[in-house]
Amino acid sequence: MKKLTISTFLALSALAFSGAAPSFAQTTSQAQISEQTQLLLEGAFKGLSQRDRIQIQSQLSEYGLYASTLDGLWGRNTANALHQAAAMMEQNMGDDLNLVTSQRANAFVNQFVDGSASAFMWGEGGECDGCGDAQVADQTERNDLAKVPSGFRCNREPLAYNQLKRLVAQARERANSGEEVAALELRTLAAYHGAPFSSALVADTALGGTTIYSNLGFHPELSPEAILSCLRFASSQKVALAKVWLARAYVGDENIPEAVRSQLPPNIEKARELMTCAKSRACSDNAWQTNFSRPLRVVAERIAEHDNRQREATIAEAARSADGIKQKCTDLVSLKGICWALTVEEMKTVLTSQQYECSADLFGSQSCQRDDQMVAFTKAEVSFNCEAFDVCSYDYEEVSSFLLEQGIVGAMEADRKFITQSTAEAAALSAMGFGPALAFKDPYWLLSSCGKGPKGQKLCVEQPEDGEVRLVLRKDTFGAATPSFE
Predict the structure, then answer these.
(1) Distance CA 275, CA 312 (A)
(2) Rounded distance, CA 271 to CA 291, Å?
(3) The dihedral sign for the CA sequence 386, 389, 392, 398
(4) What gap in Å lies between CA 199 and CA 197, rounded to an integer?
């Protein structure tokens, strides 16, 4: 803080003794008060009890610097009076108060609570007791704690964007010059007043994640509620860093303090959403960064463990039902234990017991898959790709002969159809369940060999010209037995 000139001090003294309260524009010092100092004084004042705040206003009133209501509320009149008091103290001491840290600001305002300020307001003392204590505190107390306002929560009292921008810029300058505590205090004030990335950074520091501030802490220590308020606010403002921390908390990462984790019950789906969001530019302001890979690996592993447990439970449940379901296929043509005596849901249960994963695509087609093996369903067909039976190296005639040899059907009849572009889309949809977007684009020959079972169910081996084999179970006339000529 700049020293006052003698003429300025005389003007201040005259005003003080006359009982007039100078305005903010009436002093040189007032015009030079930094925004950081204003915020530090505000934080120190608000951190006191209402009785102490009223005591401060009462003391300032006795010095002729405050002429408003003694209500204990922070406002322009209280701010002006404290600024003017600081200027008078500096003049009497012949030295700057250096109100650039929360410790110094606290020491300054507390002198008006205990009455020790009077010796330095009227020039009776040789030095500022409270401010001297602050200097001693730099040597005797921990100097690695950043002060936070009483009842700290991120975005507690939003400031205008330009004010926040200046705070963040000042914090960056302090950090670049190695003044870590001052930088973190500025970050904390920015978080308190609504800077999203500062909110994430404050929570990150409290959780031990920021390298530059790894040796620092907060006074008072941030509560779990305060940390989560910062993370939630920053996450709502699309800060990826905050989403990463929240995802870790939701999966129970042991590197996060238990007190914080206990505030967030385990929620794998929420963690999955946050992890996906942290990687997406549509959801985060600084999408996927390299330094997120390690903490997100923990999240991914926990999600995978959860999914595996769920998967194992689903398979076990399907296996308990599959044996009874497959009995419905007795004497019917079946592949992989499924036939047209089953509903599609029953077919999916049988395949799930064989570790297939079943789902529906964007076009509503249902399918089950295990690695490269695919089984797709429509209302009248169940289609198996060549990987499902490891027959991709054979043509349709060879596969048909295998089916006859194994007695799956008694006879098969070869055929071929010329598929035009319009019918190709329908063929692809019905055969593979992939939808029209992946249909063949040109007319082609479809080669096939089909046979019927004793109850009208139909099994075909199909091969698009220059394509791979697929097997198709068709409902056909299932339910009506073939004629008997005995």
Answers:
(1) 24
(2) 18
(3) negative
(4) 5
Q: In what order do the strands lie in the sheet with 357-360?
A: 357-360, 366-370, 373-377, 381-385, 470-474, 458-464, 444-452, 413-419
Least reliable range by pLDDT among 93-107, 294-308, 442-456:
93-107
Report residue 327 as tokens: 């009995």
**Which letter does DSSP use for residue 479 in this model?**
T
Tell which residue, 377, 374, 314, has the closest CA to residue 349.
Answer: 314
- Do β-strands 470-474 and 381-385 pair in parallel, antiparallel, or remain unpaired? antiparallel
Spell out a b/e string for 340-376, using b for 16 or more CB atoms within 10 Å of the CB, else e: bbbeeebbbbbbbbbbbebeeeeeebbbbbeeebbbb
pLDDT digits (tens, 9 = 90+) for 275-287: 888 888 888 876 5
* Tokens standing for residue 171: 């914090």
For 12-35, what is each residue's pLDDT tens digit? 333 333 333 333 233 333 434 578
User: How far is residue 60's CA from residue 118's CA, in Å, rounded to a whole number?
Assistant: 10
Global pTM value: 0.57
